[in-house]
Amino acid sequence: QVQLVESGGGSVQSGGSLRLSCAASLSTYSRYCMAWFRQAPGKERERVAAINVYGYTNYADSVKGRFTISRDNAKNTLYLQMNSLKPEDTAMYYCAARSYDWCSISSGDFSYWGQGTQVTVSS
Length: 123
Known about the structure:
Structural class: mainly beta
Shape: globular
Largest sheet: 7 strands, mixed
Number of strands: 11
Radius of gyration: 13 Å
Helix content: under 10%
């Protein structure tokens, strides 16, 4: 059974940092596109960052220069380093996996999801 387990969320003040982790029980983890999505109350889920099997990364414009996605294939773990956090970054953050070399921006293309970790940024 595939499991994605996020951790690292919490409450911080504006300008602070958090590092999210996602442990994946995928036997061929290195062959999956991995991504972080977020969803704030009353808003649609959006893709924050993604990293494909070749290590290429892509970010939403709203987080470019502040967030960094990375993966450790030896540990089957995905990370999201979030710096200079803003109140508008407040959301539930989800880890997602897609069994394909390249990533998609659509949440519907991702087969596996974690339960989410809450990030709250206060001004």
